[in-house]
Design a protein that fits this description.
By secondary structure, this protein is an alpha+beta fold. The protein has three domains: 92 residues, Orthogonal Bundle (Arc Repressor Mutant, subunit A), CATH 1.10.10; 239 residues, no CATH class; 46 residues, no CATH class. Helices cover 39% and strands 15% of the residues. It contains 14 helices and 13 strands. The strands form four sheets. It has a six-stranded mixed sheet with strand order 6-7-8-9-12-13. It has a three-stranded antiparallel sheet with strand order 1-3-2.
Length: 415
């Protein structure tokens, strides 16, 4: 009650002891707290459910317990009486507040969010000063939902009003913090879509909420209560069509061919369900529908993007591999063939025949082996020619000289 301000025993049972088969223990605890003047019954609903609130003393104890943990405590419900009739004022427990608490209870019962991990009426201030308040914020990293904003609608709002809420959350996700560096601020001011070049870690929303573990901005859920399937279907149709600029993924801007993956990096993941489905099947069941998809999924499956970044990396890697294979095949098709022996050129020989000093490569139509044979023949012929030249240039006085005898000189001593 320190978080939700008011709650029935049934709601508190699902929030605090969801494993119990009924709410008797919860009601006993409430009576015990009432004896200690920590809680009181504010009103009794038409179905005889009692609505409990904290007393001033209980509110003080809740603040001591929750505020040191960084948990926001709801405002105190003080007793106020009509000065004329003496009737207790402000005891109405409107259906919207009840639906918010019931939604949190169903999420907690399914293991999505700790009972102290919920927050209500959390404001998100836009650049123009408007504050968009989320009915409920849940943080459930253990359940695969690090953070999610929830809007509870009993069809008291027009569908286009819900689109406006979606737009505001999208705009808030594109804001920079006040202490952003000047270079980033100047970049964002340079053109309307420049914020898309700024990493999410540098944006305001990451100062408020943890990473979502998925592409895109903070997920948003619309939970419809006390309405008909036809009205829900009509509202969702308007959300899908008019809200497309805010929830829909885009095509990846890439040079790769055949990429079917979608870019969710700038989108708000939006899921829808009804409170009746949560109560009947449980929040952990396949009762969530992601805008842009058909059919219902579990919450984590609905929030995941199997056709997003993971698929893009796989397709890009596959496209790169195919491009390399195609280029290799095309290069192999261009590889020269020896005009003498029919053998394909090696890479080294091919490089020699296309280098700047191609004049050193000899006959450009032959392979490396044939070129080596040519070089060997040329060297052998050169060696034979050298020997022949050496033989023809022998000194004339050496001719006729008997081997082993000293050469006769021109001048001899007379005997």
């Amino acid at each position: 009650m320190g978080i939700f301000q008011r709650a029935t025993a049934d709601q508190l049972w699902k929030l605090t002891r969801p494993d119990n088969r009924h709410d008797k223990l919860t009601r006993d605890n409430l009576l015990d707290l009432q004896d200690h003047h920590l809680v009181r019954i504010e009103s009794v609903q038409e179905d005889q459910r009692q609505v409990w609130v904290l007393t001033k003393r209980g509110h003080g104890e809740a603040k001591k317990l929750l505020e040191p943990k960084g948990i926001r405590v709801s405002a105190l419900r003080e007793k106020k009486y009509d000065p004329v009739t003496g009737e207790l004022l402000g005891t109405s427990y409107d259906d919207h507040a009840a639906a918010v608490t019931s939604t949190a209870a169903e999420l907690h019962r399914a293991g999505i969010g700790h009972r102290l991990g919920f927050q209500t009426e959390i404001g998100h201030r836009l650049a123009d000063g408007y504050v968009q308040r989320a009915d409920l914020v849940v943080r459930a990293p253990a359940a695969g939902v690090p953070v999610m904003l929830l809007e509870i609608d009993r069809r008291t709002e027009d569908a286009h009003d819900l689109v406006a809420k979606l737009r505001r959350y999208w705009q808030w996700g594109r804001l920079l913090p006040k202490d952003a560096d000047k270079h980033t601020v100047d970049l964002v001011r340079s053109r309307p879509d420049a914020i898309e070049d700024v990493d999410h870690e540098q944006r305001l929303w990451r100062r408020v909420y943890p990473p979502t573990g998925r592409e895109g901005l903070v997920p948003l859920a619309f939970v419809f209560a006390d309405t008909t399937k036809a009205k829900v279907a009509n509202t969702v149709a308007v959300l899908e069509e008019a809200g497309r600029p805010y929830w829909a993924p885009r095509r990846y801007e890439t040079y790769h061919q055949g990429i079917t993956a979608k870019d969710y990096s700038q989108a708000v993941p939006v899921v829808v369900t009804t409170l009746e489905q949560l109560q009947e099947h449980g929040a952990g069941a396949a009762v969530w529908r992601r805008l842009g998809r058909t059919g219902e999924q579990t919450l984590t499956a609905a929030l995941d993007n199997p056709d997003g970044d993971i698929l893009f990396r796989e397709q890009a890697a596959r496209a790169d591999a195919e491009a390399k294979q195609r280029m290799a095949a095309e290069r192999e098709a261009r590889r020269p063939v020896c005009s003498r022996c029919g053998t394909k050129f090696t890479d080294e020989r091919w490089k020699q025949t296309t280098a700047r000093d191609v004049w050193k490569a000899g006959d450009l139509s032959v392979c490396g082996s044939c070129h080596a044979d040519d070089v060997a023949r040329q060297e052998a012929a050169a060696e034979a020619a050298r020997r022949q030249v050496a033989a023809t240039s022998e000194p004339e006085e050496d001719r006729g000289q008997e081997p082993g005898k000293p050469r006769r000189g021109l001048f001899r001593r007379r005997s």
